[in-house]
Amino acid sequence: MRYVSTRGEAAPRDFESVLLAGLAEDGGLFLPESWPTLAGEEWEALRGLPYSDLAAEIISRFTGDTFADGVLRDMCRDAYAGFATPAVAPLVQLDERRFALELFHGPTLAFKDFALQLLGRMFDHVLARRGERITIVGATSGDTGSAAIEACRDRANLDIVILHPEGRTSAVQRRQMTTVLSPNVRNIAIKGDFDTCQDMVKAMFNDAPFRAEMNLSAVNSINWARIAAQIPYYVYAALSLGAPEREVAFAVPTGNFGNVFAAWAARRMGLPVTALIIGANRNDILARWITANDMSARPVTPSLSPSMDIQVSSNFERLLFELLDRDGARTAATMRAFRETGTMPVPDDAWQGATSLFHGLAVSDEDTISEMRRLHAQGYLADPHTAAGTAASHACAPEKVGVPIVIAATAHPAKFPDAVEQATGTRPELPPHLADLYAREERFDVLPNDLAAVQSAVRSHARRNG
Ligand SMILES: *Cc1c(COP(=O)(O)O)cnc(C)c1O
């Protein structure tokens, strides 16, 4: 299995090198050179497997010979053993045709644990074999940082430094990061906003000597391995509802297009998926694209679903490449135009092709609240991101799509207690493993918006220097 870049200039690589590199040298994103597909009886053979074994079967189609026999399966078992329910990704029926696929039973209560718990283990395994050590640096506005820290803590071959904007994450989100006191974890609160943190991370990556000295690496959502690790739960849900004989639709609250692209990939592998419904919030670039081929970035404004407060959906480039018949030069030109003008000129025929599969809706804060209230009245407590997904599934599912709709429930309601309480009057409780979160010791540095100061903090932290 080899990987190509969406911009067509980078040399093909294997899975291991894609895992470590993240982004291709030409600025593009990696995709498999050809998609693996499964036949009817192969899907059926997966039905009934425990989640982690099913995940290993699917992911092994993408990892080539990076892992010896049995290694990937053991990593998956280990990664998902830490989830709070044996089902790992339980499916809860909401009404006659709707099901919530609960992706929030991992250690940090959001779906990002599915990919990052596995990635931490993949990194450590590959680095040990290569005799290398890396420093992971990332910026977070909330959920990614805690999932990455939880996945990397105490791993032998990597150190991790996460920057967050001082005072701008929720208390739950901050404490999920800053109460991890493992020696290989360091949190830095930056005096600035999320963009300040993000710019600082980019500057560190662009500083070639520093990058080489620290052996910097990233775990952000453009890493192909993250998408690959998100495909299995769509397969698991569809098989539970009767695939490959029966079709399903998925509704996904998404901002960066990562999670919905994983659903697209499952379909590309042969899973019978009739519709992909995107739930957006007021930052509605994806919904505007699907309804009107208007992919123009506007300023980001805060919403009740902060993990979707995004106007540049980095993973969209993967779909674009596919819509343009895998023409890297055209993909690169389209992305360049987007960067220069703020509007992405997706050709009409490519867009038309996508509209038969994709549907999208921008859900306002008011509608998110009333959807949470409605679900609660029916006995289901949803977080605001999940509610955007269910609301979109009601508005967009065309009647002809008479198939079950699976909504990706991306966060635990206790991760966003204020919004949930505002909508339902019920304040969700943190699950047992986090019940004492507010009593735990926090540790983090506060640094000014000063690259040199942050670089020196990273340098002193990285054990490769120690
Ligand atoms: C990250 C996140 C999302 C958005 O995921 P994409 O990568 O943009 O698809 C949605 N909901 C929650 C709770 C998240 O943490």
TrEMBL record:
Sequence positions bearing N6-(pyridoxal phosphate)lysine: 112
Major enzyme class: lyase
InterPro entries for the chain: Ser/Thr_deHydtase_PyrdxlP-BS, Thr_synth_N, Thr_synth_N_sf, Thr_synthase-like, Threonine_Synthase, TrpB-like_PALP, TrpB-like_PALP_sf
Keyword entries, A-Z: Amino-acid biosynthesis, Lyase, Pyridoxal phosphate, Threonine biosynthesis
Reaction(s) this enzyme catalyzes, per UniProt: O-phospho-L-homoserine + H2O = L-threonine + phosphate
Record has Acetylation as a keyword: no
EC code: 4.2.3.1
Pathway where it operates: Amino-acid biosynthesis; L-threonine biosynthesis; L-threonine from L-aspartate: step 5/5
GO process annotations (BP): threonine biosynthetic process
Entry cofactors: pyridoxal 5'-phosphate
UniProt domain Tryptophan synthase beta chain-like PALP: residue ranges: 101-329
Protein name per the record: Threonine synthase
